[in-house]
């Protein structure tokens, strides 16, 4: 008979867990027969001793099997999904989803809400008046079949093992484990049922993985798990040492995404989105990466991607007129400038600090119970490399409560660095895996 204490001791001593042992743990912990203290002990042993890719894959698949799995077979053709490890100003789904759908590939995306210094994709979409992210499974599949794209919140009993384990890891110092991070992300992606998964792995000051080496290790682990599970998976490592685009905040980011789909907007957002869209189209069989990038660029140039966003918003009950008139999006009652303390060149903006400042204004969640203000956030007027004079406006802070400005401005004093020399520009797209 299998005993949890033996499994803990085996991993503590550096042993390799079998598929049966991992399944015993996940099943027992999800059902409640294995207590928190034993689960915590095993998680710590995994953090300290690690897992090989076979163990990590068994862990992922056991978590997938802990709950519902979405069957997308009713939707014809290849279905694609994308996951970002999160960043400041990361509105890529709002741009590349419509691009890929406009190129004839179905996008079936389950997204989460943000916790911490940024809103998630669901929070951004819910800043569009009337937009419904809480679709039933039938509504989700129908929307993808009819418009080629749907983005919805996770519904039903999807990967309950991950929900329980993540809550425990959060309070036991066991979040930072390659096997546990990669299995947590991939279990949700695999349960969501798509054929193709492209991972946007961020690295830098505003990312969970601070170094390129850490980001590459995570990307390789997730690609390996997904490939072993029979999916087409690739990862793109992108820079998050600086915020993506100029807008940080939910309605502000929707407005910027619309600009990009109109052929305007920030070049960095366009570049990352075209790269990710091209990789999704390539894995979906639309041709070489170079050809797929041309297809993606043409979807913007022709207006097809913008029309696809409009269709998606309408299909999910939202006010589609925001695409033609972004002024219909929520606007903050108060706007305040953040000004340069000295002249010179902006040598850096710490993305994480910028995100925290936006959260203080109401754009993110300090706790799960926090309410997001869709209009709150920050718009950058200058970015790293730009020259500034003392007193120049560097950012606009948007809030519905003027008392929130003071603490956000203090955070920005830490976030912004101004020096005498122009900084070397870092590449936006750092690497591909594989």
TrEMBL record:
Domain annotation Pyrimidine nucleoside phosphorylase C-terminal: ranges: 345-419
Domain of life of the organism encoding this protein: Bacteria
GO cellular component: cytosol
Keywords: Glycosyltransferase, Transferase
Catalysed reactions, semicolon-separated: thymidine + phosphate = 2-deoxy-alpha-D-ribose 1-phosphate + thymine; uridine + phosphate = alpha-D-ribose 1-phosphate + uracil; 2'-deoxyuridine + phosphate = 2-deoxy-alpha-D-ribose 1-phosphate + uracil
Biological processes annotated in GO: pyrimidine nucleobase metabolic process; pyrimidine nucleoside metabolic process
Alphabetical list of Pfam families matching this protein: Glycos_trans_3N, Glycos_transf_3, PYNP_C
SUPFAM superfamilies recorded: Nucleoside phosphorylase/phosphoribosyltransferase catalytic domain, Nucleoside phosphorylase/phosphoribosyltransferase N-terminal domain, Pyrimidine nucleoside phosphorylase C-terminal domain
Entry keyword annotation includes Glycosyltransferase: yes
Gene Ontology MF: a single term: 1,4-alpha-oligoglucan phosphorylase activity
Keyword Transferase: yes
Enzyme Commission (EC) number: 2.4.2.2
Family: Belongs to the thymidine/pyrimidine-nucleoside phosphorylase family.
Complex formation: Homodimer.
Function noted in UniProt: Catalyzes phosphorolysis of the pyrimidine nucleosides uridine, thymidine and 2'-deoxyuridine with the formation of the corresponding pyrimidine base and ribose-1-phosphate.
Protein name: Pyrimidine-nucleoside phosphorylase
Protein species of origin: Thermoclostridium caenicola
């Amino acid at each position: 008979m299998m005993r949890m204490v033996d499994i803990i001791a085996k991993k503590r001593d550096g042993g390799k867990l079998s598929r049966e042992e991992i399944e015993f743990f996940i099943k027992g912990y999800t059902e409640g027969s294995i207590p928190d203290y034993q689960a915590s002990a095993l998680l710590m042993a995994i953090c300290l001793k690690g897992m090989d890719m076979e163990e990590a894959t068994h862990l992922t698949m056991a978590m997938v099997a802990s709950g519902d799995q979405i069957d997308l077979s009713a939707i014809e053709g290849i279905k694609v999904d994308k996951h970002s490890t999160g960043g400041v100003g990361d509105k890529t789904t709002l741009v590349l989803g419509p691009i890929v759908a406009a190129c004839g590939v179905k996008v079936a995306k389950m997204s989460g809400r943000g916790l911490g210094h940024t809103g998630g994709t669901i929070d951004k979409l819910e800043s569009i008046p009337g937009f419904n992210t809480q679709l039933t499974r039938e509504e989700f599949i129908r929307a993808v079949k009819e418009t080629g794209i749907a983005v919805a919140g996770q519904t039903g009993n999807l990967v309950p093992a991950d929900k329980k384990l993540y809550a425990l890891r959060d309070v036991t110092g066991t979040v930072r484990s390659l096997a546990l991070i990669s299995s947590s992300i991939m279990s949700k992606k695999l349960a969501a049922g798509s054929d193709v998964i492209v991972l946007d792995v961020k690295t830098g000051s505003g990312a969970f993985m601070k170094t390129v080496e850490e980001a590459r290790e995570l990307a390789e682990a997730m690609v390996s798990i997904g490939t072993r599970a029979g999916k087409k998976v690739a990862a793109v490592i992108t820079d998050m040492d600086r915020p993506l685009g100029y807008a940080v905040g939910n309605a502000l980011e929707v407005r910027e995404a619309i600009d990009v789909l109109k052929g305007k907007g920030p070049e960095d957002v366009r570049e990352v989105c075209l790269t990710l869209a091209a990789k999704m189209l390539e894995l979906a069989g639309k041709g070489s990466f170079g050809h797929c990038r041309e297809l993606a660029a043409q979807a913007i140039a022709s207006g097809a991607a913008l029309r696809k966003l409009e269709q998606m918003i309408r299909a999910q009950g939202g006010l589609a007129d925001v695409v033609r008139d972004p002024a219909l999006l929520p606007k903050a009652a108060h706007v305040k400038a953040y000004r340069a303390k000295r002249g010179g060149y902006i040598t850096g903006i710490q993305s994480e600090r910028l995100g925290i400042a936006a959260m203080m204004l109401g754009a993110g969640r300090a706790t799960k119970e926090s309410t997001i203000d869709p209009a709150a956030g920050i718009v950058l007027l200058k970015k790293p490399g730009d020259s500034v004079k003392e007193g120049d406006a560097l950012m606009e802070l948007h809030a519905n409560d003027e008392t929130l400005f003071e603490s956000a401005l203090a955070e920005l004093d830490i976030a912004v660095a101004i020096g005498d020399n122009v900084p070397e520009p870092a590449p936006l797209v750092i690497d591909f895996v594989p």
